[in-house]
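name: query_chain
kind: protein
chains: 1
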Amino acid sequence: MKRLLVCTGLLIAATTLFAQQGPPKSPPETESATIGGATITISYSSPRVNGRAGHIFTKDGLISHNPHYPVWRAGANSATKLHTDADLDIGGISVPKGDYTLFVDISDPDNWELIVNKQTGQWGLAYDKAQDLGRAKMTMDAAPSLVENLRYTLKDLGGKKGTISLAWENKIGSVQITVH
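structure:
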């Protein structure tokens, strides 16, 4: 009887603990598309604006507290991953097929640069500039409405061309992709 009470108590405690956790604050997401016959995949964690609109990309905003600011991990948690099964040109950067990490330089919040980095598997804040494959200027647009959840979009434009877009809060940055 004593064992039954102990087991029941542990079960109730565990159930209560798991019920309080709720969904992750920055859930894992994947965006994948086939462009010009190549499969391109971006894996990232999607943070929320969560009432911080207007306080994400400013010089004293949320991202400015990261140790590698103005380089941003362009997501949350572990580093944002790019996988391509074909050689690409991303905004003028020659990207051989394989795995990479994406960062964004937001020195100027209205003129971002996408960074393709050769180092993979690191936590999102572990940025090593010496590992950069290259940087590409992003075309910037204002989001038509608040983008609560950070979102990557891969779009096939036909003719082996496409775009990578990153939208969060009130900004959308995009860059052209060409499949070789």
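note: The radius of gyration is 20 Å.
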